[in-house]
Amino acid sequence: MSGDHRKQSLYFPEDMLDEIQREAQRQDRSISWIVQQAWRVARGDIRKMPSVNDVMAPRPPAVPPKPGP
Question: Domain ranges in the chain?
């Protein structure tokens, strides 16, 4: 692991933070360690998610029906 220890504020919904804190206590680990491990486990799946900047290909214009006989 690198020696870079930058600080960053993260905001979690209260119920999620409570769950993370309980898991940290259960494992006798820090909240930071729990979140880092969760990222390592989930990052492959997260990278598969589309970006908000991903744009679906535009649909071709609809062809109007031909008039009947």
Answer: 11-39
For residues 65 and 24, the model is more confident at 24
Which residue do the tokens 């998610």 mark?
A: 49
CA dihedral 14→42→5→32, nearest 10 degrees, is: 30
> 27, 34 in Cβ contact below 8 A?
yes
Write out pLDDT tens, residues 1-34.
567 788 999 999 999 999 999 999 999 999 999 9
User: Residue 55 carries which side chain, given as an amino acid letter?
Assistant: V
The DSSP-derived string for the chain is --S----------HHHHHHHHHHHHHHT--HHHHHHHHHHHHHHHHHHSPPTT--PPPPPPPPPPPPP-
Is residue 67 over pLDDT 80? no
